[in-house]
Design goal:
229 residues; three-stranded antiparallel sheet; 5 helices
Length: 229
Amino acid sequence: MTHERLDQPVWHSLGGAHAHLALRAGRARRYPAEVSPFAALGEPDVAALVDLAQLLPVGGVVALTGADAALDAPGWRALGGFEVIQMVCEEKVAPPDRAFPELGPADVADMLALVARTEPGPFGTRTLEMGRYVGVRADGALVAMAGERLKPAGYTEVSGVCTAPEARGRGLAEALVRAVAAGAQARGDVPFLHVRAGSPSEATATALYARVGFRERDRRRLAIVQRTG
């Protein structure tokens, strides 16, 4: 399978399963900042960036792929970026041998605290609205979690995978990834995910995901851009 929708997962998510979350103008779409920093352009050109400017205040920052035009477009500044590895799972995922409780609005403060300790990627006060999250608690404290983020039609992204330092080495991350991926497959979706290339956890993360059944599909640059005018 070529998985063409995964070339623009943010665009297709905001035009489909996450349409209720989408802020739109012309050929630009974005999530509310408290949900996710991601935005997408229908075409990676200056005209689409003009549309995106309608969705962002001056000084606002978004993350998007295919944003090379931002380097030359008036009113935009590239703040940086990095390469991400996109992985997809076409194999049948064996679910874990235990069930994990689902996390809800009452857990958001604990989820944000765990994210602050482990830095798995962007997670805001409303990220939970993007999909289902499951977690593990020890002595009442949330020590591991994983969940669903982007949802282009036919796909579910596994995201927010993190484990507190004191709970590592117990296989919790792999079990949680299996739970989320198997749940997506049970709905008929293909699981996919992203790993930051060059990060300290890249080798460990990609090895874990490979054990579950994920393979590398693509690499792309994620740009962080700011509206300046």
